Amino acid sequence: MKKRALFMLAILVVAGTFWGALDRIHPFGDPVRAPMDDYYLDNAQQERSVNNVVTAIVFDYRGFDTLGEAAVLFTAVCSVLALFRKGREGR
Amino acid sequence: MNPLSIVVRTICDVFAWFMGIFGVYVIIHGHLTPGGGFQGGAIVATMIAFLLVSHGGKKLLAFARPGFYSTIETTGLLLFICAGFFGITTTFFYNFLAGQGGLFGSVVPSGPNSGVINSAGTISLMNMAVGLEVIGGLSLIILYMFKGIRLFEDAEGSGETGHDR
């Protein structure tokens, strides 16, 4: 019974937090600070000669982040290989 | 995994080509359309899973060598890092090919336009490099996980459990 009361209390706290956040949410489509977005949208086509601004951000302005993503995939492949390789008996 | 029936195998033979072509299309149009290296590579790697389910593991492992995919993956990652390092005279990951003419160097017109395929500089190059890496990596994961399943099944002494034959 005590567990149940605790559970209900947790639900109330989380729901209250979400409700309060929803009540004070910033209007959609009107960001507080947009100079960075405006810079990308205005200059990506001239600076990098690319139509797809998302690709320009992912592979050029934030290319180092993408390098980390590629390294994550490489590490995942290495760990799968280490897990499923055919080992000798007792090793 | 035993092969599925001949109807499924024939249909998969036809559609695997379309999946491969669509994945390569998504990769090489990464700077024009939504998508790019990661997404297109995942589509091409889905082709391997498709063929594994339809044709069974024995036939797939006969022509899909893990060494080949390992080479593709390593080549892609090294090409990506090298494309980042080629622009080191300005900064790391500088787009030194964009707008210079030549390879991927066409200048795109300002404003909405229909897209120039030979543009975007190192962005296209990196899309292809990441595409190669994701094709190799996800295919290797699929192949090695299948090999691992077969390892456990052999250890139990039970043969392969098939679908319909």
Mind explaining what this structure looks like?
- Chain A is an all-alpha fold.
- Chain A has one domain (2-84).
- Chain A has helices at residues 2-23, 35-48, 53-61, 63-84.
- In chain A, α2 (35-48) crosses α3 (53-61) and α3 (53-61) crosses α4.
- The N and C termini of chain A lie far apart (49 Å).
- Chain B is mainly α.
- Chain B has one domain.
- The termini of chain B are close together.
- Chains A and B meet through α2, α3 and α4 of A and α4 and α5 of B.
Keywords:
heterodimer, A: 91 residues, mainly alpha, 74% helix, B: 165 residues, 5 helices, elongated
Give me the count of strands of chain A. Answer: 0
Q: Report the sheet with the most strands of chain B, covering strand number, pairing sense and barrel closure.
A: none
Please report which band the strand proportion of chain B falls in: under 5%, 5-15%, 15-25%, 25-35%, 35-45% or over 45%. under 5%
Number of strands of chain B: 0
Poorly predicted ranges of chain B: none
Helical run tally of chain A: 4
SSE pattern of chain B, N- to C-terminal: HHHHH
The radius of gyration of chain A is 24 Å
The helix content of chain A is over 70%
| Structural class estimated from helices and strands of chain A | mainly alpha
Q: Number of helical segments of chain B?
A: 5
> Which chains make the largest contact?
A-B, 31 and 45 residues
Strand/helix succession of chain A: HHHH
Number of domains of chain A: 1
Q: Which class of secondary structure composition applies to the elements of chain B?
A: mainly alpha
How far apart the termini of chain A lie comes to 49 Å
Mean pLDDT of chain B: 81
Low-pLDDT segments, ≥5 res of chain A: none
